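Re: your question about Pectin acetylesterase

S., sorry for the slow reply, the queue was backed up all week. Below is exactly what I fed in.
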Amino acid sequence: MAEIVRGFWGVVFVGFLMLSKWVDSYEFEDFIFNKTSTGDGAITPTPLLIALTLIQGAAAKGAVCLDGTLPGYHIHAGSGSGANSWLIQLEGGGWCNTVRNCVFRKTTRRGSSKFMEKQIQFTGILSNKAEENPDFFNWNRVKVRYCDGASFTGDSENKDALLQFRGQRIWEAAMAELMSKGMRNAQQALLSGCSAGGLASILHCDEFRTLFPSSTKVKCLSDAGLFMDATDVSGGHALRDVFKGVVSIQGLQKMLPSNCTNKLDPTSCFFPQNLISNIKTPLFLLNAAYDFWQIQSSLAPPVADPHGLWHDCKRNYEKCSASQIQFLQDFRNDMLNAIKGFGLSTQNGLFINSCFAHCQSERQDTWFADDSPLIDNKPVALAVGDWYFDREGVKAIDCAYPCDKTCHNMVSK
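Result:
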């Protein structure tokens, strides 16, 4: 199996922990995605660089980042057969669940456009090359930047801390801007997102559908967004505690789907497993059964593992004991149980591979390359394409670890 090796990660991770025990709940994700180095296919030789566009009219709508700066996006125009097709990718980056780490987040690109990169690479599902992105390469492709800390769902503020929680308004302002740039004429549209953006693509999926006439083919893709309300290694619920903080600090109770909050508490309604059965728009779940981020920050975060018994295992799956592997197998089983009803619908799609990975659609090596991860000899890109274009139904669920030899497993060293 291909391995992704992380240099100097531990030093930076410790630094983040000194700021807040849950700062890593969003900043760790950056190291997974941005500091990756692999073999062939990891980074396109001549990556497409796309400039940041700020939404100039957003401030008048109150659609601003945590620090009050303008939100933004990156767009590359479609051409030919894809000129009237649109792919929207919602950026991920975890969440902030306390005033303290929301204030810290204002000093990063996850909370302020002042710190966003002026250009980013479009690879994987955003690539403009047919050999890297066979079904969506010539579509209008957009990356919407994430700077609200709650998966584009909040609409409140904390005046004392000078924090703006305006994710819902950012979503609406971004969609309005893109509609004015031609998306209103879309014949085909796909809303996607990675990690916290994958959760956002679930939360906004049906809302995205309402932007278009019934004649427009609209579907949604959630990559690494299936965050589980799992029991951690201490018997607690570390991620539930984080989500409870996010819901509370941003006042999400009134923003979450009523068809969920009528039955469950608001925190439960921030977990995708309690949302997916109510999504009416066709939805594809792309997820690693042993999601690397969830192992690090939900199953065995420092707060749940004070003695470091999981220190080696959660950084390198080959160092896990038999009992630790069994714990991870139970997590996989819980994930598969959570999607049973969802998977029965013919309109929905699944690609659940037994890899130690996180976010597989934006990275070239895991999306579509010579050695990409496979289920039934099919890579992620072709599975998503077959599902979107109704070439065939896709309900791809891998056998349990260690059967899959095509994985690009993440390893911290």
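The first strand starts at residue 2 and ends at 6. The radius of gyration is 20 Å.

Happy to talk it through on Thursday.
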